[in-house]
Design goal:
The structure is a homodimer.
Chain A lengths: L7 E4 L3 H16 L8 E4 L4 E2 L2 E2 H8 L15 E4 L2 H6 L3 E4 L6 H8 L8 E4 L5 E3 L2 E3 L1 H9 L5 E4 L4 H5 L4 E6 L3 H11 L4 E6 L2 H23 L4 H22 L11 H12 L2 H12 L3 H9 L5 H15 L7 H11 L11
Helix pairs in contact in A: 4-5, 8-9, 8-10, 8-11, 8-13, 11-12, 13-14
Chain lengths: ~350, ~350
C-alpha cells in the first residue's frame, strides 16, 4: 500500500481521554494498513510526585494521576506541546472538559493539516438563550474542519478501561470518516455503532443529565421502580422532542443507540446527577450547598443544563411545550413541590 | 343523552385484576355519560377464612386475598358466575393468568353480546414452533370479537394500587375503542397512551422477560452499569427486530412507549426474572432447582419464553439472526459460558 496512513493525535488526558488512549493505541496497531503506529497524546503538563506527568506517562505507559493501574500501549506518546502534538496529524480526537475547547482550538488555528479529520468526545452542549452550540460544530468552525464527528454512549471511563463490555455511538455525516473512526474506536469490549446523526449524539449526552435529576428526585421521594421508569421514559420523549423541534435532522432511531437509551439508563441508575438530586429531595438543601458538600464545589451538570434549557425555552416562550424540563427547573430553583415531576 | 351506556365486566380478580378494578370503578363514575355505574367483576370463587371470596369482596369492598389493604369503589360487584357476569356486558376486560384464557373463552362462546368490545391485559404470548399466538387475537377468534385491544406497561400492581405515578400503553386498531379504553383506564396517576400497534404492545410484554434474564446474568457476574445498560439496549433492539421480522405492523415508536422502554427498565431493575437469573449466574444451579427454591416451584416466565423463542427461531433456521435471544437460551440450557452474553 502506498496510501498515506493516518496520524492520530488525542487531545486531552483526563480519565476518559486516557481510557480512550488505551483503545486507540491498540487499534492503530491492529489496523496498521490504515494508521501510523505512533499516536500523539497532548497532555496538559503538570507535576506528578516531583516529575512532569508526560515524562511519567512515557516512562511507565500509565497515567497514574487520572487512570491509575491501567497500562497504555507503548505507541502512545505523551506530548506537553499542543501544537507539536497536533501539527503533523491527520486525525484529531478531542476529549477535553468543555471549558477548555475554545482555548485549545484558538491555539491551533492555522497550525493543523488543512485536510485533518476530527471527532469530538467533549461532553455537553453550550446552551444560551440565543442558541445552542454543539462542540463538534464549534471545533469545526474554529479550525475550519468540515464534518467533525461526535462520540457518546453509556461509557463510564473506569469500566471501559477495565474492558467491561459496553457500546458507544459515533455520529458522522461523512460515511468515510465514520468508517475510519469505527476502526479507531471499535473493539470487542467497546462496540461502536456509526450513525449519521451527530447532532442527536451530542444532544443526548447533555440532556440525559436533566433526566437523571428527575430520576434522583423520584428516588429521594421513595417512589417505586414503576414511577422512576415512567420518568425516564417521559424524559427520553422530551429529549426527542427537543431534538426534533430545534434540530431538523435528529432521528428517532438515534434514541435507540447507546448514546440514547443505554446512556440514559446508566445515568439514571447511578451517577452524580441522580445522587445529588436524591440528596436535594431528601434534605431540601439548595443545589449549590450540595455541590459544596458532595462535589467539592464542582458544578453539577444536570442542574446547570436544566437552567440553560429553561432559559433557552423561556426566550422562545416554549416552556409549556416541555413540561418535564420545566418541572425539573421549577423544583430545583423556584421552590416548586417535589412531586411536580409526576404532575405534568 | 339517550345513547346506550357501556356496561363493563372485569374478567379476573388476582393482584393485577384487583388493582385494575380499583381504577375502573373510579373511572366509570367519572365518565358517567359513557359508562353504566355498576361494574361486574368475575371472581373465581374460593374460600377466604370460611366465607366465599365474592361475599367478602362485596361486603368489605376489598379483595383481602390478592390485594389486601386497598379499597375498591362500591360500584364493583364481585360475581362468581362467569356467564352471569359477562352476558349483559358491552365491554370485557380480560385480566387473567394466560393458562385460563382458553377455558374462560370456551365457557363464554355464544353467551356474550355480539357487539361487545374487549381488551386483553393478559401477560405473555403463546410461542410454539409453528407460530405465535397473541392473547388479544385468541380471545377475538374464540368469541368472534373484532379488534380486541391490549394493555401493557411498567405497571407493578401494588404500586398502581397505591396510586404511585406510572404510565401504561393501550394498543387498539380501532380509534373509537381506543378512546373508550382511555376513558376506562386513564387517571392522573396511571397515564394511558393509546397507540394502534396492539401487536407491539403484547410482544414487548412477553419478550422483556428474556432481556431481564440477561440483565440478571450481568448482575450475577458483577458487571457494571455500562454493561447492563448495553445488554438492555441490545435486548430492546432484538425485541424490535423480532417484531419487525415476524409481524409487519410493529412500529419503532411502540418501543418508546411505557410497554417498551419503561417496562424493560423496571423489569431489568427489579423483578423475579432478573433475580432468578442473577442467582443462576452466582450459584450455577439449574433453573428448575432455582424455581423450586426461590419461586415455590412456579415457572419463571423469562426462561420459559427464552425456550419458546429459541424453538420458534430454530424451526425457521434463524437463531443466528437473533444472537441475543440465542445466547440467553444457550447459557440457561446448553451450558454455554455466562459471558457468552457479551460476546455476541
Amino acid at each position: 500500500m502506498t496510501l498515506q496512513r493516518e496520524r492520530v493525535c488525542i487531545i486531552g488526558s483526563g480519565n476518559w481521554g486516557t481510557a480512550v488512549a488505551k483503545i486507540i493505541g491498540e487499534n492503530v496497531t491492529k489496523h496498521s494498513q490504515v494508521f501510523e503506529p505512533q499516536v500523539q497524546q497532548w497532555v496538559f503538563e503538570e507535576d506528578y510526585q516531583g516529575k512532569p506527568l508526560t515524562q511519567v506517562i512515557n516512562a511507565t505507559h500509565e497515567n497514574p494521576k487520572y487512570l491509575p493501574g491501567i497500562r497504555l500501549a507503548d505507541n502512545i506518546h505523551a506530548e506537553p506541546d499542543l501544537v507539536k502534538a497536533c501539527s503533523d496529524s491527520t486525525v484529531l480526537v478531542f476529549v477535553l472538559p468543555h471549558q477548555f475547547v475554545r482555548g485549545v482550538c484558538d491555539d491551533l488555528v492555522g497550525k493543523v493539516n488543512p485536510n485533518v479529520k476530527a471527532i469530538s468526545l467533549v461532553k455537553g452542549l453550550e446552551i444560551k438563550p440565543d442558541g445552542i452550540t454543539l462542540f463538534s460544530e464549534e471545533i469545526g468552525r474554529r479550525l475550519q474542519i468540515e464534518e467533525v464527528a461526535a462520540l457518546s454512549g453509556a461509557n463510564i471511563a473506569d469500566e471501559v478501561a477495565r474492558e467491561q463490555f459496553c457500546e458507544t455511538t459515533i455520529g458522522s455525516r461523512s460515511e468515510a470518516h465514520g468508517q475510519l473512526f469505527h476502526q479507531l474506536f471499535d473493539t470487542p469490549y467497546f462496540r461502536a455503532n456509526v450513525i449519521r446523526d451527530y447532532v442527536g449524539v451530542e444532544l443526548c449526552g447533555a440532556l440525559k443529565n436533566v433526566v437523571a435529576v428527575a430520576a434522583g428526585i423520584s428516588d429521594g421521594l421513595n417512589y417505586g421502580s414503576n414511577t422512576k421508569a415512567a420518568l425516564i421514559r417521559l424524559g427520553l420523549m422530551e429529549m426527542r422532542k427537543f431534538g426534533q423541534t430545534f434540530f431538523g435532522g435528529v432521528e428517532d432511531t438515534t434514541f435507540f443507540e447507546s448514546c440514547g437509551v443505554a446512556d440514559l439508563i446508566t445515568t439514571c441508575a447511578g451517577g452524580r446527577n441522580r445522587k445529588v438530586a436524591e440528596a436535594f429531595a431528601r434534605t431540601g438543601k439548595p443545589i449549590d450547598v450540595l455541590e459544596r458538600e458532595l462535589l467539592n464545589g464542582q458544578k453539577l451538570q444536570g442542574s446547570l443544563t436544566a437552567i440553560e434549557v429553561y432559559q433557552f425555552l423561556s426566550a422562545r416562550k416554549m416552556t409549556n411545550e416541555f413540561p418535564f424540563f420545566d418541572a425539573v427547573y421549577q423544583i430545583l430553583y423556584q421552590g416548586a413541590p417535589l412531586d411536580t415531576i409526576v404532575k405534568l
